[in-house]
Protein: Methyltransferase type 11 domain-containing protein
Amino acid sequence: MNTQHHVNQQQYQDKSQAYLNSSVHAQGIEFEKMQQCIQAHQLKRVLDLGCGGGHVSYQVAPFVEQVTAYDLTPSMVELVVSQAQQKGLQNVVGQQGAAESLAFADGSFDCVISRYSAHHWQNVAQAMSEMHRVLTASGKAIIIDILGNSHPVIDTFFQTIETIRDPSHVRNYSLQEWMRFAEYAGFKVETIEKQSLNLEFQRWTERMQTPAHAVQTIRYLQSKASDQAQQYYQVQSDGSFTSEVVYLVLCK
Structure:
């Protein structure tokens, strides 16, 4: 395991319950979109890549034959499998591992879904190639993640506060970067949609157990951010803000 993967595990090993209970992670218009895509294309075997608290697994399990909840952090995988059992979802299995090295045979899945995970990956291009490999010829990849920005002032501000809040953060990618990753991996882009995500500051930092001095630094940076950045992220007086989210459906 490389050093950054170890940082990721350290950051998330005791936060599985927080992510399970997070309303930001439990809710979203994307769940209905996923379910419709799965039903429309009769996708039966799903990989929940970077499963976190398992909300994707719980939402799609009733519509498929099997969901594999996959995460770098063992406690996340254990939580999802146990919660699925409690919810009566007998078709959810778990496996621990990194997105860049999927321990599955070619064509193992009809659908790979990654939701709010890719900004932690060490090598998105490699992970996308792995997603392409494990999908069937008619399979779909669905990616939901917070968008970075091609404007340096806006982008630097957000990447900085994200990293201060969570040292395992790697990068939020712009839409242009996502298009390059998809093309490089051999995917065709089927759907591109944008959503908004409102983040309540106190919950956002408490979920990661961000230390008080780091919280103060983030608030300082918010107060000193350019008007452009403050307006783009709709930064509120309590630090709460809004982010753009991309919903991508890719096919081979």
Summary: The chain has one domain: 3-149+169-198+243-251.
